[in-house]
Design goal:
The protein has twelve helices and eight strands. The N and C termini lie far apart (about 65 Å). The protein binds coenzyme A.
């Protein structure tokens, strides 16, 4: 990735995770075709080598939407290609969790990118919403189905049909973000979540995400198949044995301490 031309997506790889920064601050990180191409390239990498992904925006903005200059020129055939929709589906389907760390505006396609994440956290400056109908289009890159999964039908309908944006306090109250942090603490908070995930078994995390996202009709078969595979994994035996031996060890110590009294 990268090359001589500056990429609208800065990708850093560290501590078993990837941090991707939307980086077009002069255009409030508006999501253009080059950024979509870079997101696809990142997905390709993470599909082959699954790691937790942290998505952030440069310059105090997450993303102020799809690039309206490009959108204005797009026609029906472009809409049918689902340029942003397919990229966001690919991000949502990444094997490991995706964390959106949202400072400032997350509007239109920017909000839809955040909805595609598994976990969303924000800052007090967060403003998130879908003003698309005001531009004469609909939010077709995931909002119409993902937003109601996140905040429920009634709230999603009100937000999408009015185009109203939500600030941090309301976003937290309705579950659109799971926590709010001062700007300086946002990235550390995202890393703390990634650290927490990293302590767990990777295969179990991947299975949990896949099963969590499975359609209702596939449950419980999909859960049981995934569990069957994990029940045979060496890591399950190692982790459970470690737990039991630690318990036995500490029970023995507790017993002998009692006996000594
Ligand atoms: N697409 C393309 N360009 C965008 C953009 C978008 N979604 N959002 C911002 N920009 C550009 C502006 O055109 C401006 O470019 P210029 O400096 O070349 O004129 C630059 O980013 C700065 O934007 P500006 O409006 O001056 O910044 P601001 O900080 O005053 O306001 C916003 C920020 C997000 C409130 C405002 O830019 C905005 O409303 N953006 C559009 C939001 C939207 O409707 N998104 C849905 C798209 S589907």
């Amino acid at each position: 990735m990268g090359g001589a031309q500056s990429s609208p997506l800065i990708v850093e790889r560290a501590d078993g995770r990837v941090i991707a920064t939307l980086d077009r601050p002069a255009k409030r990180n508006a999501i253009d075709q080059a950024m979509i191409d870079a997101l696809h390239a990142l997905c390709e990498e993470l599909e082959h080598d699954p790691r937790t992904l942290i998505l952030v925006g440069a310059g105090g903005v997450f993303a102020a939407g799809a690039d309206i200059a490009e959108l204005r020129e797009r026609r029906a055939a472009d809409a049918l290609r689902g340029i942003n929709a397919h990229a966001f589906v690919r991000i949502a389907e990444l094997p490991m969790p995706v964390i959106a760390a949202i400072d400032g505006y997350a509007l239109g396609g920017g909000a839809e990118l955040a909805y595609a994440a598994d976990i969303r956290i924000g800052t007090p400056d967060l403003v998130i919403g879908n003003p698309e109908t005001g531009l004469g289009i609909l939010a077709a890159a995931g909002a119409s189905w993902r937003l109601k999964e996140i905040v429920g039908d009634a709230r999603a309908a009100e937000l999408l049909l009015t185009g109203r944006s939500v600030k941090a306090e309301e976003a937290l109250r309705i579950g659109l973000v799971s926590s709010v942090h001062d700007t300086a603490d946002l990235l550390p908070a995202a890393h703390a979540i990634a650290d927490r995930i990293a302590r767990n078994d990777r295969a179990a995390t991947i299975a949990t995400k896949r099963v969590f996202r499975a359609p209702r009709a596939e449950h419980p078969a999909v859960d049981l198949d995934a569990q069957a595979a994990l029940f045979e994994s060496p890591e399950k035996f190692r982790r459970m044995t470690e737990f039991l031996e630690r318990r036995v060890g500490s029970n023995d110590r507790a017993g002998s301490e009692k006996g000594e009294r």
